Amino acid sequence: MAKRFQPGIVSANDLLSGAVIYLAADGTWVSTMSKAEFITDAERADERLALAETQPEIAVGAYLAPADNSDAGPVPNHFRESFRAEGPSAPARKSWGYANA
Amino acid sequence: MLDAQNNPTRTYLDRRVEEFRAQVNRRIDGSLTEDEFRPLRLMNGLYLQLHAYMLRVAIPYGTLNADQLDVLAEISERWDRSYGHFTTRQNIQYNWPKLPDVPDMLARLADVNLHAIQTSGNTIRNVTADPLAGAHADELMDPRPVAELIRIWSTDHPEYQFLGRKFKIAVTGSPNDRAVTKAHDLAVRIVEKDGEIGYQILVGGGLGRTPVVGRVIREFLPQADLLPYLEAVLSVYNLAGRRDNKYKARIKITVNEMGLEEFSTRVDEAFARIRPEFSGADQDLLAELQTAFAAPELAPRDDAAYHAARAADPVFASWADVNLREHFAEGYAIAMISLKPHGGVPGDANAEQMRVVAELARKYGQNEVRVTQEQNLVLPHVAKADLPAVFGELKAHGLATANAGLASDIIACPGMDYCALATARSIPVAQQIAERMAENEIDVGEMAIKISGCINACGHHHIGDIGILGLDRAGVENYQITLGGDAGPDMKIGEKTGPGFAYDEVADAVERLVHAYLDLRHDGELFRDTISRTGPEPFKSALYDEEKANAA
Ligand code: SF4
């Protein structure tokens, strides 16, 4: 049985850096979730995932991440996607602060 | 220890690096798909996590020399964010490498005989051992020659590159198990019987989704039978282990489904077949390794300076009380270097700290550093007379927290701050608890708090006095508490207490447990003694009834 469709965005990791990326409406990949295309139906989701599949030199592991829409664009509606969007939470960054951080 | 210049595996490592470099290039230019590339990168320890790649580098049996630690620091500066994370399986993880840089990182590692081979994938993983090997007074025999023999035998072994699932091996030579042997797929305990050294072999241990305490399959195996016996175990597992279901593919399930007796019978049959193939070359190698790992010559040293420093500086005295372990040599000590500053990220060390420890090892520590399953570092051979100087350096670099083995010496996996498999965060929970524990922990005494960010249990939560498992309950982080686990020689799996706690309730809950322990304990009782005497009820009541009372 197919899973019930949930609106969201297409996200993946960048092949070279591993960073979190999102698929925008114009078919480019962006690093900010709010600039991603908000997808509201299953058919469009399949199309966009198919597009991501054709770009293995950019995107790794593309999937449909559930999200809400807002005036400012898509926003996470689950904490996992919040962490993906924002990076490790502040307390976990304590070891950083040296070169390249 | 193998020295970097006369490195017999250097050619092999160079070949592997160049092979991987070519694979990375082919992935980037599009000739390999991700599905084709993933198993290749995993064979080289390269994961793709939440925000970045992660490179896991093996520290075989947790032993490093100063040059190796310097290179680990250098790699973090050149290609990562100037820190590394030490794990419960004696690995170091870099959290921010870029794919095109990874071959260079591996090449630099190869310069000092380190690598990331078999730190991932369904193969025999980094062989771990007692981190205090060759140093602790309670040891029967240094386990590292055996661990190295197993490592040489299992590295790139063609039969074991595609096992049904990962396979973890640990070795200890001490009756006070510091290598969590019963949580391993296979473990070797060096034992003595009638004056003869041999091995007790355990199988089928593991944590994760289905925690199982490893069981003895052979009470006493003669030394010369070790590798053929391991081959026999692996061959039975390789054939009988399930490949239809990832969650049932570990040897613990095979042993449980088949029964230990039947499994053991099949191993004996395989052993009879395999044993004649071993001509004794492995034993010659073992003898060489035993020479290579011979204990350092430790000149007798007067420890008056140590006692004078203790008397003069209470902070030093308290660090020494908590962080030193008994060395086999008079006038020497094992110094535990805590990577758990109160409020810090458990197991993280920055590049500067790694260099400081390397330099201390050179100057005062026979050039040796160890990495523990508790995610700390160790200087295994320090003259007591040098400890004040060592302590001063550690203190100047945030490495002198006096909490080894105490409540704030928390094991925590990377959790959802880094790990793609996580269901909740671990690091900030550990930080909150450590800060609460700081004040009172000397009084509380030995206490193991362990936190995992998902059911895979990399944070060993099942075997903590207090275990914490982070879950996703309907889109919210929720933390389940287990009590009464024990990571020692008689490993015990903790019991779940009841409903979980919200992210901002966990530290309070742990504090209530610790207070309950202080109220209930008899003189000299450890947490695990108290709870086995009282049963879990009073602790559950502290967790849940007090919460209700507070809410009312
Ligand atoms: S226990 Fe889970 S969250 Fe933690 S490191 Fe292991 S897989 Fe990741």
UniProtKB/TrEMBL annotation, chain A:
Pfam family, one: DUF2849
InterPro entries found in the cross-reference section: DUF2849
Span list, region Disordered: 69-101
Name the record gives this protein: DUF2849 domain-containing protein
Domain of life according to the entry: Bacteria
Automatic annotation (TrEMBL), chain B:
Keyword vocabulary terms for this entry: 4Fe-4S, Heme, Iron, Iron-sulfur, Metal-binding, Oxidoreductase
InterPro entries, per database record: NIR_SIR_4Fe-4S (IPR051329), NiRdtase/SiRdtase_haem-b_fer (IPR005117), NO2/SO3_Rdtase_4Fe4S_dom (IPR006067), NO2/SO3_Rdtase_FeS/sirohaem_BS (IPR006066)
Nitrite/Sulfite reductase ferredoxin-like domain: residues covered: 53-111, 345-396
Keyword Protein transport carried by entry: no
Family matches, as Pfam families: NIR_SIR, NIR_SIR_ferr
Top-level taxon of origin: Bacteria
Nitrite/sulphite reductase 4Fe-4S domain ranges (all copies): 120-271, 412-546
PANTHER family with a match to the protein in the record: FERREDOXIN--NITRITE REDUCTASE, CHLOROPLASTIC
Protein family per UniProt: Belongs to the nitrite and sulfite reductase 4Fe-4S domain family.
Protein name per UniProt: Nitrite/sulfite reductase
Organism: Maritimibacter dapengensis
